[in-house]
Design goal:
Elements (H helix, E strand, L loop, with lengths): L1 H15 L13 H12 L10 H7 L2 H5 L5 H14 L5 H7 L4 H17 L1
Helix pairs in contact: 1-2, 2-7, 5-7
């Protein structure tokens, strides 16, 4: 999330001073910006409240499902992605553009992995 945090800081600076020529932006991609924000928002969805290492030690179903790798992160992503794909969110899906889903998925997953690494 370091990259995303920097990106959001630059975006906030851009909004505060839209004509400032000294602002440097890491990206102008709206999809990347949305992906970073989305990744931060879903970070703890359905989090069990204990670290992944405890889930592994306890033999949690999450640990088994995700083969002891980033279980809470993968679980939160899977739950939210499944929700996003529901017909209730057709308008949001249309705004994103269904052809952009693979790219958005990659941005969100990379954001979650960066968050895990900090």
């Amino acid at each position: 999330m370091v990259y995303c945090t920097i990106l959001l800081a630059f975006s906030a600076e851009r909004m505060a001073h839209p004509t400032a020529s000294s602002c440097i932006f890491l990206t102008t991609s709206q999809l990347t910006q949305f992906g970073c924000i989305f990744s931060a928002l879903i970070a703890c969805v359905d989090h069990p409240g204990v670290p992944n290492s405890v889930l592994i030690q306890e033999g949690s179903p999450l640990a088994q499902k995700y083969k002891n790798k980033s279980m809470t992160q993968q679980n939160s992503f899977d739950l939210v992605w499944e929700e996003l794909m529901k017909p209730d969110y057709d308008k949001l899906q249309d705004c994103i553009g269904k052809e952009e889903f693979p790219r958005l998925r990659s941005i969100v997953i990379n954001g979650k992995l960066l968050r895990k690494a900090r």
